[in-house]
Design goal:
Elements lengths: L61 E9 L2 E6 L6 E5 L4 H6 L5 E11 L14 E12 L15 E5 L4 E5 L4 E4 L6 E12 L2 E7 L4 E7 L3 E2 L6 E2 L1 E7 L2 E9 L6
């Protein structure tokens, strides 16, 4: 079991931790509709913010980089770095599974730590060290502005789903809902956040609309892009329910 990144404390920023104390949030099947394990009482909030590995070597900091499959192993290169590290997947196998799907290069966000090459890992000779991946938070095929060149997100959390298409973005000042049908964009204020049965919930209102958004520590795959998310989302717009995946940004919750 990978080390959980949960701080069950009251009053933390929304980027502090969204995993339950001592639990493993990822189920065997990455289903956006599955229920995350219930968490102990206390404020449960997101981990982050995203930081470059060069500025935060701590295992508590989210690492960003490119994973490249090479035969029977994979290498990791942190964003902004030139050193290739031998990757050791000590998580729940989500990354290893992705690399078996003919995906040879992935941009990832993950918890993990850099370390020296163990004496018994002779196959890693020529690498600058090892990257011990503890938990995969996000992964996407490189390209299409999904890699290290992507600008850091300026939201608290974003969520989206397909069939029907929808997206919700939470910022410090409110929430924006987007959909193909009219109204295509709804801007909502009066943002409130609370922990809801082991998840983080947000609600916001506009003159004629209300959106409730719940983010759970549950593995999720985008059915169209193939992106992997550590968080699943459930949204309710004016009584209509939507399901999808969620991604943590760099802002703190209000």
């Amino acid at each position: 079991m990978s080390r959980c990144r949960i701080l069950c404390l009251t009053g933390l920023s929304v980027m502090s931790a969204l995993l339950a104390c001592g639990c493993n949030p990822q189920s065997e099947n990455a289903s956006p509709s599955a229920t995350a394990p219930a968490a102990p009482a206390g404020r449960i909030e997101f981990s982050g913010p995203l930081q470059e590995e060069a500025s935060a070597e701590s295992g508590l900091a989210i690492k960003r980089g490119i994973v490249t499959a090479d035969g029977d192993h994979a290498s990791y290169r942190a964003c902004g770095d030139r050193a290739d590290l031998w990757l050791l997947d000590e998580g729940e196998g989500a990354l290893t599974q992705l690399l078996t799907e003919d995906l040879t290069s992935l941009y990832i966000e993950a918890y993990g730590e850099r370390g020296p090459i163990p004496d018994n890992l002779t196959a890693a000779a020529g690498h600058a060290g090892v990257f011990l991946l503890e938990q995969l938070l996000y992964a996407a095929p490189t390209g299409e502005n999904r890699g290290c060149e992507r600008a850091p997100p300026d939201y608290v959390v974003t969520a989206r789903g397909n069939e029907p298409f929808w997206a919700a973005e939470v910022t410090q000042t409110g929430m924006v809902w987007k959909q193909p049908d009219d109204p295509q964009e709804i801007r909502l204020g009066e943002l409130q956040a609370e922990d809801v049965e082991g998840a983080v919930g947000y609600s916001a209102r506009a003159a004629q609309h209300k959106v409730e958004l719940q983010i759970e520590a549950q593995a999720c795959r985008d059915s169209m892009s193939g992106e992997y998310f550590a968080y699943a989302a459930r949204a309710v717009l004016d009584g209509r329910e939507f399901k999808g995946c969620a991604h943590v940004g760099t802002q703190d919750a209000p």
